[in-house]
Design goal:
Layout (H helix, E strand, L loop, with lengths): L3 E7 L21 H19 L3 E9 L7 H14 L1 E12 L3 H4 L2 H7 L3 E7 L3 H6 L6 H14 L2 E8 L6 H14 L3 E6 L7 H8 L7 H17 L3 E4 L2 E3 L6 H7 L4 E4 L4 E6 L2 E6 L4 H11 L7 E2 L2 H12 L6 E2 H8 L9 H9 L3 E4 L2 E4 L1 H5 L1 H8 L2
Parallel strand pairs: 1-2, 1-9, 2-3, 3-4, 4-5, 5-6
Antiparallel strand pairs: 6-8, 7-8, 10-11, 11-12, 13-15, 14-15
The protein binds S-adenosylmethionine (SAM) and iron/sulfur cluster.
């Protein structure tokens, strides 16, 4: 039985960041009690149909889960531990925003059982934090990081780079400052313009101009080089860790393992009675809660994922990883041989061009291949 990765979504934020298309909502008042009860109810419903199975990780994502009552986090962890069989080294991550209010609550999350924190720092530059619409200053982010490192055995933080007008020299300097504050893990994302966001409108108007492809590629190389000097190695396109400190939860997504998603808008891929089910919850928080109160769960449609779709999803996920895709596991998870899922001509050319490598029963994208992964995947996946 695949060990389970459990995702729990908290859909609220203090403000909506102009670049973000995650399922996050701003409310004047949040009925903490109602949403806590609904999350617990939906977790119990999901566990009842999944049955007791090994659980490798829990991830509280958002939105801004550091706005949850610590007691809710504690209750959900306790429920999950009781409903599943936690592995001895269960990883429990919570995403936190580094405002001073939330930093003050970190110890309570640790007490609730969280053992890994992921802080949304985004930038260490005042003008960039303003541009990104963040609710915290660079000093607050640094203070939150320092506090987190005293409290949690594992700490990660996120930065967004390839911002408008950012030079390679400026990014290297900012990244070096960040690396001096890092412990075992960093997520370093290039800014993307997502439909439906405020940045999408500004970008369409020409008010925001992203670095061109060559500059973005140079920034990507600079990122890997600087992180490498600190012993943080890229194990996924945007994720860097000391060996052994990779996020086990996110690895479950990229290795196409089983994951259950609880809360508004959460997705899951869970094996039930020999089929892999794609699960999805209602996105809007209040209607989701109403459904849970009425039916015990807020699921929308649930469909078994056909083998060719499993193959496509596993390729899109697995080639993001430095380790690549294990061919034997690919067959076990999809029922399709890796070669049958790929365009043979593009595969041959990508191997020849050194964008892909195939050895020891694995297919992986090389660093050059990972830089152009989207176009590579578009052509490769049959
Ligand atoms: C669920 S979000 C944020 C968690 C938390 N609420 C916060 O803001 O810190 C996870 C991460 O995705 C990244 N992200 C979101 N939208 C992005 C975008 N359009 N481009 C690049 N990175 C993005 C940010 O670094 C963010 O911290
Ligand atoms: S980046 Fe984080 S804080 Fe900002 S809107 Fe998205 S989820 Fe909320």
């Amino acid at each position: 039985m695949e060990p389970l990765a459990l995702y729990i979504h908290w859909p609220f934020c203090l403000a909506k960041c102009p670049y973000c298309d995650f399922n996050s909502h701003v409310r004047e008042r949040i009925d903490q009690h109602r949403f806590a009860a609904a999350l617990r109810a939906e977790l119990a419903w999901e566990a009842a149909r999944l049955g007791r199975r090994p659980m490798a990780s829990i991830f509280f994502g958002g939105g801004t889960p550091s706005l949850m009552d610590a007691q809710t986090v504690a209750d959900l962890i306790e429920d999950a531990r009781r409903l599943f069989d936690p592995l001895p080294d269960l990883e429990i991550t919570l995403e936190a925003n580094p405002t001073s209010v939330e930093a003050a609550r970190l110890a309570a999350f640790r007490q609730a059982g969280v053992n890994r924190i992921s802080l949304g720092v985004q930038s260490l530059k005042a003008e960039s934090l303003t541009m990104l619409g963040r609710q915290h200053s660079a000093d607050q982010a640094i203070a939150a990081l320092e506090r987190a490192r005293k409290i949690f055995p594992r700490v990660s933080f996120d930065l967004i780079y390839a911002r408008p007008g950012q030079s390679e020299a400026a990014w290297r300097a900012e990244l070096r400052q960040a690396l001096a504050l890092a412990s075992d893990h960093l997520s370093l994302y290039q800014l993307t313009i997502e439909p439906g966001t405020a940045f999408f409108t500004s970008h369409a108007r020409g008010d925001i101009v992203l670095p061109d492809d060559d500059t973005a590629a140079a920034l990507y190389d600079a990122t890997a080089e600087e992180a490498g000097k600190f012993g943080l190695l890229p194990y996924e396109v945007s994720n860097y860790a000391r060996p052994g400190s990779e996020s086990r939860h996110n690895l479950a997504y990229w290795r196409y393992g089983d994951y259950a998603g609880i809360g508004p808008g959460a997705h899951g891929r869970v094996s039930v009675d020999g089929a892999l089910l794609a699960t999805r919850r209602h996105r809007a928080p209040e209607p989701w809660a109403e459904r849970v109160e009425r039916d015990g769960h807020g699921s929308t449609d649930e469909v078994p994922v056909a083998s060719d779709e499993r193959a496509r999803e596993m390729l899109l996920m697995g080639l993001r990883l430095t380790e690549g895709i294990d061919e034997a596991r690919f067959f076990t998870r999809t029922g399709i041989h890796l070669d049958a899922a790929l365009d043979a001509d593009i595969l041959a050319r990508a191997l020849e061009a050194d964008y892909l490598a195939r050895d020891n029963g694995c297919l992986r994208a090389t660093p050059e291949g990972r830089k152009r992964l989207d176009s590579l995947l578009g052509a490769l996946v049959a």
